[in-house]
Design goal:
The protein is mainly α. The protein has one domain. The chain is 60% helix and 8% strand. It is built from ten helices and six strands, in the order H-H-H-E-E-H-H-H-E-E-H-E-H-H-H-E. The strands form three sheets. Strands 1-2 form a two-stranded antiparallel sheet. A two-stranded antiparallel ribbon has the order 3-4. A two-stranded antiparallel ribbon has the order 5-6. A hairpin with a 7-residue loop joins strand 3 and strand 4. Helix 1 runs antiparallel to helix 6, helix 2 runs antiparallel to helix 10 and helix 8 packs antiparallel against helix 10. The structure holds zinc ion. The site of zinc ion has 5 residues, from helix 3 and helix 6.
């Protein structure tokens, strides 16, 4: 999943109004943000295997530290404690931890059975939505635009100059998603972590969007 993780993070603004959209993006994508680093140091392994599923040409050979249930739980706990310590916002911290976990469950829905329960486990989960391009698009777009609708319900523009920041983000993220889906596979396995690290651009965009918007009057837990 890709768009859906951002969709869940957008939706989360409603329940974590004090937390910046950029931070919500980090939580929703945390294990995919860490994954390129683990690939680069060689602790996790991916290879290109055209047709692995209809949607992705990637074969996730080994990625238990980022993408096992236990691994993901450890990262969720880490973000909880770090955010709570820095921001003294327990509710925000809990929502962020939930977002980290949501990534794993959405990945279970989309991946073929390649998600381990814990490092060393030989039980792998995955329901294989990625075998169906239409179904994947439907779920990804549904969650993304549903989350966006909630985000728009929760926040409003500070002034009209900020408009372009959110809408250009939406066009850009949909464009790269479709490019990924319809374009050629990555040229080599070495190119995968580099492309993955580029996701930080989207995180930075989230912080930028957040700065152009404010909570709508009546949103609980007004920004402080
Ligand atoms: Zn993932």
């Amino acid at each position: 999943m890709f768009l859906a993780h951002f969709g869940v993070a957008l939706a989360a603004k409603k329940v974590a109004p004090k937390t910046s959209l950029g931070t919500l993006f980090i939580a929703g994508q945390l294990i995919d943000l860490l994954w390129p680093i683990f690939l680069l140091v060689g602790w996790e392994v991916v290879e290109i295997d055209k047709g692995n599923t209809a949607v992705t040409p990637l074969n996730f050979i080994y990625y238990p530290f980022t993408h096992s249930l236990l691994g993901c739980g450890v990262w969720a706990a880490a973000i909880y404690f770090v955010y709570k310590k820095i921001k003294l916002d327990e509710r925000g911290a809990a929502i962020l931890a939930g977002l980290v976990m949501s990534h794993w469950f959405l990945d279970v829905l989309s991946h073929r059975p390649d998600l381990p329960l814990y490092p060393g486990s030989d039980i792998y989960l995955g329901l294989g939505l990625w075998n169906f391009v239409g179904g994947t698009l439907f779920v990804e777009a549904g969650i993304f635009f549903g989350g966006l609708a909630l985000y728009l319900q929760t926040t409003q523009l500070k002034d009209s100059r900020g408009k372009i920041v959110l809408w250009s983000f939406i066009v850009f993220i949909c464009f790269i998603y479709l490019l990924n889906l319809l374009g050629p596979p990555p040229p080599s396995a070495e190119a995968i972590p580099i492309a993955g690290l580029a996701m930080w651009i989207l995180i930075a965009w989230g912080y930028w969007i957040d700065r152009t918007r404010e909570l709508r009057p009546g949103t609980t837990g007004s920004q402080g």
